[in-house]
Structure formats: structure tokens, C-alpha cells
Amino acid sequence: MCATCGCGESAGVRVSDSAHSHDHPVPSHDHSDLHHHPHSETVVLEQRVLAKNDELAARNRDWMRTRGISALNVMSSPGAGKTTLLVRTINDLGGRFPIAVIEGDQETELDAERIRATGSTVVQVNTGAGCHLDANMIDRALAVSRPVDGSLLLIENVGNLVCPALFDLGEEGKVVLISTPEGADKPVKYPHIFAVADLVIINKIDLLPYVDFDVEACVRQAEALNPAVRVMTLSATTGEGLSEWYSWIGTRLGWAPVAVDK
Q1: Could you tell me the pTM of the whole model?
Q2: Domain 34-252 part of CATH 3.30.1360.70
Q3: Helix-, strand-, coil-residue percentages of the chain, each rounded to 5
Q4: Of all residues in the chain, what percent carry a pLDDT higher than 90?
């Protein structure tokens, strides 16, 4: 068991280029010490796991920065609309600069196939029993995909509002996506992921007439946890609010503001 989040020791992680279906097994964390002293060693092992991850994340960040590759770590619960947002973003912006995707799921390549249909480069990471991506998985995925210099790299994390917050991947920004059908209390229920977010997106605002969701209350909760966070509302399905998302991408990554005619 992972001392940090409880992921299975034999998680069965697979990294693959979905276009060629080549699997690249990723070794799981070394947690052998945990079996000897499961109680006294837990905190030490958690520190080791996170320290090793942070070291690998720093290497990922350096590797990408030297090539002008800017990565965004997109996190949410399952079904919030991450893949739909990524597909829409690629379709709208892909002609302006190269966009690559690392797709994280426990199993299947269903979301990777949706991304691949846009023509974008995509690498699938199946985490097996694991509930999040980590820096080692991103390192292996980068070795497979080799995004071109100057790319925007969109990392779709495993659907989970808990463990992904703990693991730096080497990204330039953390994006937390929630959707109106989930309820407005997600920030207070899952405070850590909102506390580390650079941007919170409230998706599926086209459903506001049909669900009980208090936008202002949700924004207040997020800002109370993280006064520096940016919160925006949009619908990845209808396109409402996407111009603000595209502008944020441009300014966050130090590019000229991105605008799309609607």
C-alpha cells in the first residue's frame, strides 16, 4: 500500500502511445519497508515518496522549460467534463500552436481515443489500482510522446479530488474542474486540491436552470481556501465562457492573450 494515499503496491501502471498501442510498464513505488513496521514507518515513507516525486517533478519541469513546453495539470472528479474541455480546447486552439495530451485513467483508452480524433498527440497512462498520476508516470509519458518544442501540454489526471493534489508532476499550473451537477460544496469537502489550484473552473453552467448550484457560494468557498485562486464559469459543451479560459491559458503561460472568434 502507498503510505501517502493508499494506492495498491501492484498498481499495474501502463504508459502507451494509443496510436501504436505500445505499452511501457512503469514500476510502482518501492514500499518494501512498510511491511516491516507499518505503523512507525508510515510517516517516514510518506515523506520519502513525496520527496522522490518532487525531485522527479523538478526534473520534468526543467526538461520542459528548456524546450518551451508548458504543462497544465487538469484535475477533477469523474464526469466533470475534463475530456470534453480538452477536446474543445484542441479544436479551437490547435491550429495556433502544437498541443499534446497525457491522458490518465485507471483503465481503457476511451478518453485518449476522443483526444486522438482531434489530431493531437496523446499518450495514455493507465494507473491500474492507482488513483492519481505522479511525476514518474509523466517522465515516462514524455519519453514516449516527445512533444515538440513550444507545445502546450495538457495533462488530464485521474478522476479524483483527493490524491492528485499531493503530487507535483512538473506542471506550470494546476487547474481544478468541477461541474454544476456535483453541487457547490466541493471546495469545503475537498479543501486541499482547491488550496493548491491556480485556476478553478465551474463547468456545465448550461445546466444551471436544472440543478441546485449556488455559483457565488462556491466561489466564496474556493477564495476562502485560496485567496489567490482564479475562478471562472463556462460550458465546454456550448462554448459559453471559453474565451476566458483561452485568455487565461495565454496569460498564465506568458504568451499573448488567446482569443477565439465565436
Answers
A1: 0.86
A2: no
A3: 40, 20, 40
A4: 74
